[in-house]
Amino acid sequence: MPLPTVAIIGRPNVGKSTLFNRLVGKRLALVDDQPGVTRDRREGEANLLGLEFRVMDTAGYEDEDAATLPGRMRAQTEAAVREADVSLFLIDARAGVTPLDEEIARWLRSTDRPVVLMANKAEGRAGESGILEAMALGLGDPIPFSAEHGEGVVDLFEALLPHVERDEEEAPEDDESPDAPLKLAIVGRPNAGKSTLVNRLLGEERMITGPEAGITRDSISVDWEWEDFEGGMRKVRLIDTAGLRKKARVEEKLEKLSVMDTLRAIDFAEVVVLLLDATRGLEVQDLKIADRVLQEGRALIIVMNKWDVAEEASSLFNGVKKALDEGLAQVKGVPLLTVSAVTGKGLDTMMKVAFETRDAWSRRVSTGQLNRWFERALEANPPPAPGGKRIKPRYVTQNKSRPPSFVLFGTRVDLLPVSYQRYLINGLRKEFDFGAVPVRLSLRAPR
Ligand code: GDP
Ligand code: GDP
């Protein structure tokens, strides 16, 4: 298996060769204080805290005076970035971000290739303002680094790890893989039917259910497989919130334990099913749990159980739907489903929606796609100018998934009114199919 490759790119004199030397360990590349010294592209085998990869240094085609990237350097950089599994983009934190850095960043954002941004020459405190400026390049948070002094090596290691790790068979279970078990929690008020539902899903009597509140298994979670509509087996890890609670005898204690259980389950889960009792409708307590799930950034599905005995089904359904949309102001359109844990009706649809919801919750959007949307969104509805001061949003990146989280950079974007932020969040939701999973947007205005 060939070694993964890492390219070192950046404008002249930011420290590419110095970094190359540090990674490769031998003085293979020439370091010179004079910019413009012509060098060939150098390659070597690097070892960073045990992580092995091939590294390419693109230094050598440079012309400090050029206002834009000279042709040869551009071609060289582009080829390296395309070839590499990940690129290290260096800026000089002492010199700050230059127009040339911005030009390279703009191009990188359009390529969708993985990039790790490094603010080099950041030893001591000299590079602080450069680090802040680099945040605005729209390529994620820079790693403060010193190629000369070897500072920041652990952070670099962590940033590279996901891109250059080779041993796929031995890699730990990757939560982001679509094959990873769906972590599902079923929460809800006592008697909503959680235990009955879990039993039904598992297809066997693993837990004792019934109004008599007996003793159940203490298992925290149970693994099983759901057969999807195409006949495929999908792994599920289900947390049981009913078990502990059932042991309690005193009513008061029961409620307390139930809350603790619920919080723990939410913490564990990717997708939370909030089970309602259709014979009781939506209660304040349910809305509180739903709100909590969304606040914790988990994907939420609301399921009305006991649909087999529901009366005036359609008006009940519409009433709950309306109350949810009013009660959960932060996210509209949370899926509302109906099931019967006793007959099993609706459970396959529930599982299908749970997997789809996790896909949305885990989705990553490339910076290129994001910014093509972003430009259209700004054009369709330009941001306001509070107090006559223009807000100039520049670009968006997704810094996290699970839940999808975005960072918006630009001048004075921290002053964007909530209504405008909501406009952007709803736009993201629609454009990239995030459905009703929580979407987060943070604002960064470099000073
Ligand atoms: P390249 O043109 O990007 O390959 O840059 P070089 O590696 O040739 O470095 C340019 C200059 O910056 C040299 O004088 C290096 O000694 C200096 N340099 C590189 N890394 C650092 C660093 O971490 N801190 C400081 N203070 N200087 C550095
Ligand atoms: P939990 O406290 O949420 O775990 O609820 P249980 O699973 O213990 O169920 C409480 C009661 O509701 C039991 O008497 C169940 O038989 C009943 N129940 C649960 N699901 C359904 C359903 O889909 N239809 C009907 N008719 N009754 C149900």
Automatic annotation (TrEMBL):
UniProt-recorded Gene Ontology molecular function terms: GTP binding
Positions contributing to GTP 1 binding: 10-17, 57-61, 120-123
Domain of life: Bacteria
InterPro entries noted in UniProt: G_ENGA, GTP-bd, GTPase_Der, KH_dom-like, KH_dom-like_a/b, P-loop_NTPase, Small_GTP-bd
One of the GO BP terms on file: ribosome biogenesis
Gene3D superfamilies named among the record's database cross-references: 3.30.300.20, P-loop containing nucleotide triphosphate hydrolases
Residues covered by the EngA-type G domain: 4-168, 182-362
TM annotation in the entry: none
Binding site for GTP 2: 188-195, 240-244, 305-308
Record key words, sorted: GTP-binding, Nucleotide-binding, Repeat, Ribosome biogenesis
Oligomer and partners: Associates with the 50S ribosomal subunit.
Cited function: GTPase that plays an essential role in the late steps of ribosome biogenesis.
Family: Belongs to the TRAFAC class TrmE-Era-EngA-EngB-Septin-like GTPase superfamily. EngA (Der) GTPase family.
UniProt protein name: GTPase Der
Organism: Sphingomonas naasensis
Gene: der
